[in-house]
Amino acid sequence: MGAAALSAILTLLAGITPAAAQQEEGPPLTVATDNESVNIVIDWEPAEIEPGQDVEFSLDFQHPFSDQSIAHVNYDLEVQDEGGSVIQSFAGEHTHTGAGAHTVAFDETGSFRLVVNIIGTGINQPFDTTRSGTA
Prior knowledge:
With 135 residues, the protein is mainly beta. It contains 2 helices and 9 strands. The radius of gyration is 14 Å and the shape is globular.
């Protein structure tokens, strides 16, 4: 399954790895923003998600043609249940190096979505929106 097919939403199924639900490979997954301006490498630990357990997600924002990390990415991250309700939200996040990490606790089994919205790049507003997009 290509990155474009995964670009909208990463579905997480508690009790099995997200990779098993989406493709044959294990973590990490690489997804592209809807406009294909950024690839996001998503990894998680532990690889098998269990209810009541903290899961650390790491994000690496990369240039789609060079795989080099993109510095100073400003983004929002939401974890949603299968009905679209927000379980946890991280708003106004910034990474100096292009890598970010977030810990999420899944209280129940079921399907979950990780949605990353790139607001722009830069340290000060107005941000450069050339790489803005959603994955």
